[in-house]
Amino acid sequence: MWRPRAKSTVKIHDTPSSPFSFSTFKDIQNLCVEDHPSSHIKKSSSIFHRVRVANTFLRSLSLSLPEPEHNAAPAHNKTTTPPLQEQPSITIPGADKRIVVYYTSLHVVRSTYEDCKTVQSILRGFRVLIDERDLSMDSSFLNELNQIFSSSGNCCRKLTLPRVFIGGRYMGGAEEIRQLNESGELKKIIEGLPTVNSGVCDVCGGYRFILCGQCSGSHKLYIVKAGFKSCTACNENGLIRCPSCAV
């Protein structure tokens, strides 16, 4: 048989003052105490005071500003396009009768390469005379492009490719050519240029360059008394412009 359970002799003291009299819950009373309503009133009053001050300042500012004239043109109609004489222009022979494109055929920067291919595809669709100048094939084109923009006062701007000139006038880069083509303005600009037959050059295969005939593409010439010298007829890659398709 089980022994009867004995009652505990420990007396539990009643704590009517608070149900949370244990030591582990000594901070709960402070956490549960509601904030005094006067603090909210004080904060809200300061916020409304700030709003009133701000409204008063704005009202006085609007009264002090002069009213716009009805005959004056709106401010948003003003454009920041620089005058035509400040735009870059090229002076190479025959530039006024063709399109000159500075681009690169390297795949180093994918976005730049895709922009160059897009611009070439758009311009070739008009079947006009295009002078494509690949900066990766001849570094003199880079110096030429830098000189064009430095002479027009844009030497500090970041040079990106492609750069398009139509009839000797600067048209912009890939984004500008896309917008002009979509709006139909590009066709109107190119209408005055002479047309050519589309096709690939039989001499260079469309690369616009061929090997130098004097140094056979080595960019070096041997002279008996002086030894090896750099060839002056070609560029640093041993290439010259194709005489058949270069314009």
TrEMBL record:
CDD domains in alphabetical order: GRX_GRX_like
Stretch list, region Disordered: 68-90
Supply the name of the protein.
Glutaredoxin domain-containing protein
Q: Start and end of every Glutaredoxin domain?
A: 100-170
Name the domain of life. Eukaryota
Q: Where is the composition biased (Polar residues)?
A: 77-90
